Amino acid sequence: MPYGPLADAVLLAHAAFVAFVVLGGLLVLRWPRFARVHLPVVAWGAGIEFAGGICPLTPLENHLRALAHEQGYAGGFVEHYVFGLLYPEGLTREVQLVLGAVVIVVNVAVYAWAWWRRRD
Length: 120
Known about the structure:
Shape: elongated
Helix content: over 70%
Largest sheet: none
Mean pLDDT: 83
Order of helices and strands: HHHHHH
Number of helices: 6
């Protein structure tokens, strides 16, 4: 079974999900009904960060990597792939709270802009 490529596919899906959490509100500017999909995704993404949890895609990717005889990683996706690029020393709980707040602030700003544009 091609576990390595499956793990890579989970990685790509996870990266797309994180990008959608942060930037998906921009789609609402063009298609307002998209908010029905995006808002629950934002709640999930911010909730994982605020709770200090790990997205279920992370253990799935690690499991597939182990089956492919590749090395997995400890911690979460953001800590390993995203934050590891910016701050190699690791992700602290305080930074995780800031990341959750950034997700909320960015999306509130985009939704406020969308609402303001729509009301005219």
